[in-house]
Structures are given as structure tokens and as C-alpha cells.
Amino acid sequence: MKKPSIIIGKKQIIMSCLTLMLAVAVYINYATSPEIPVDSRTAAVKSDDEPIKYGETEFVNAEAAPETDDYFAQARLDKMNDRDAAVQTLQSIIGGGDITEDEMVVNALDAVQVSKLIESEGTIESLIKSQGFQDCVAYLDGETAKIVVKTEGLDKAQAASIKDIILGETDIAAENIRIFEVK
Predict the structure, then answer these.
(1) What crossing angle do the helices spanning 68-95 and 101-130 adopt, rounded to 10°?
(2) Cβ 124 vs Cβ 94: under 8 Å
(3) Are 54 and 181 contacting, i.e. CB atoms less than 8 angstroms apart?
């Protein structure tokens, strides 16, 4: 009788490692995210017609309803749900049986990119909060960065500080950074 042989190639090892990295990134994102009540509501945010420009960074002043804390809680919940859905979709594509190995590698690289964006968003939010801002939510898509900060007034130095944080953590061009203020 022949013994069944198991051949593990480089591609299988790479796919396993990428899937494991994605799972770890999702777990870290889930474990470090704050508990958010399910019944929280989004506050309305209005932006001015003409944004103020500080250097290359576009700054948009926004007024919010009194439930500003609810806005940030809902924004985090929405962002987490969107990312979880994207991760599940990528995992189901990676686990699919009707794709070639090249397509599988491309899908795995997409999954790694999503996990990097999640990690960068968390790092940016933490660094901006450490600058003295009350709250912050970062949205990255690889080409643009949108930052929403809770503050009573944003000056040029603070906008430049936020821009420096984003430029230090990502490869996003300075003209693609937008900063929104919620009071």
C-alpha cells in the first residue's frame, strides 16, 4: 500500500502566512476597539461650501449636533462593520476553489493591504489623540485620508501636526489629505 504524500509548496506556505496575518489584524482591531452601544445615533455634520486650505492640507470646518460623542461612536461602529465585511469577503474569495493560484496571490495581497490600512487607521487615531484632541476617526483607502477630529478650534499648527502624522504613517500624497472638524 502506498502512503499518501502531502506536498507543501511555497505558494501554500505564503497563502497560509497571509491568511494568518489577516486573521491576527482582524483580531487586534476587534480586541482594541471600544465597546459601542448599539442604539447610538449619528450626529448631523454640515460642511462649509468653501474649505480653508492650510498648505497642501484641506481643512473643512463642520458644526455638529450636541451628540458629537454619538457621532464618533457610530462612525467607529460603521467603519468596523465595513472592514469586517471586506475581510469576510476577501477570506471567502481566498478560500474559494475555482480560482487560479495567481488570482489567489492577488487576493491575498489585497487582504494584506486591508489589514495594513486598518492598522494605520488605528495608529493615526492614537497619535492624533495624543496631540491633545478629544476624539478622532481616520478613514484611509490607500489613496486618500479623511480625518475627523473633535475640537473647539483647529489652528494651522494643529492641522500641520495632523498632516505630519498622516504623512509619517502612510504613502498618501499631501494634497489627498482632508481634515474635518466636529465641535
Answers:
(1) 160
(2) no
(3) no
CATH code of 139's domain = 1.10.287.4300
Rounded Cα distance, 144 and 173, in Å: 8
Give the global pTM.
0.55
The closest alpha carbon to 156, from 173, 182, 179, 125, belongs to 179
Q: Is 147 helix (H, G, I), strand (E, B) or coil?
A: strand
Contact criterion met (CB below 8 Å) for 144 and 23:
no
Question: Per residue in 31-41, pLDDT tens?
Answer: 777 665 544 43
Nearest to 68 by CA among 41, 34, 38: 41
Range of the domain at 28: 13-34+43-182
C-alpha 160 chain-centroid distance = 21
